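Quick illustration, no need to memorize.
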Amino acid sequence: MLPGVYIAYKKNGTAYYRASITYRSKHISLGSFDTEENAHLAYQEAARLLGDASISFEDAFLLPTILSFSKVISLLNFRDNLIYFKNPIYLRNNYFIYYISKSDELKFDIDDLFYYSSHKIMRRQGHLFVSDYGMQINILSRYGIKNYGVAGRDYYFANEDPTDFRYSNIIVVNQYYGVTKISSSRGVAYKVQIHINGNYTVGTYQNEEKAAIAYNKAVDLAKKHGVSKNFQANYLEHYSPREYAEIYSQIKISEKYISYLKHLSG
């Protein structure tokens, strides 16, 4: 076998070739290839990337390689920052970049390094998610943004860079189900709507938490009147059960909404 190559077999007995390299006492798998020659070429490319300091990080983007792009990023980070990640992560000062592709990079705080070093980010239909315990988890959930959250309405990027997921750059505006922050000449208020056969206004409130409780009350009323839709409820951890119950009992709901529910059940 050529250096860096060993043969393996599929379940049907077909042979294929795996490449690997050892660098700084770390054994690194480079992938599987159809021929011994291609596996050896992958080994040679890895050896060059790791051993040739004249190849800058930016230069590596331009090199045609048989190695996958994610593997190139992992090798360059190991060379430059002396830590190996299986995922395509490159460390910068006080943050890191996760490369989905050559032209698709995401910035994160160092606090998220452990999580994303073990969770692969995928993009489908414009959404970024990871697989966690067999479930697809939207990465925005780490910032308290609900799945229905809309950029520019429920949250926004402070520096207008939608690829910058550092915590200081993500401003959450609407963090509760059914609650939308509105501004007028009279100040800030929170409008509550519930979707049944369309959007129905529950009320407008001066306090965001009370608005969230109003939405929960509207959900309970809908269920009481026979609406079987699977609503999401708001969880407010800042209130004790007694405080929550007191606000819940006093909060006012739109009479028009209540009349609509009575019409549904009647």
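The helical segments are 36-51, 57-60, 69-81, 113-117, 208-224, 241-250, 255-265.
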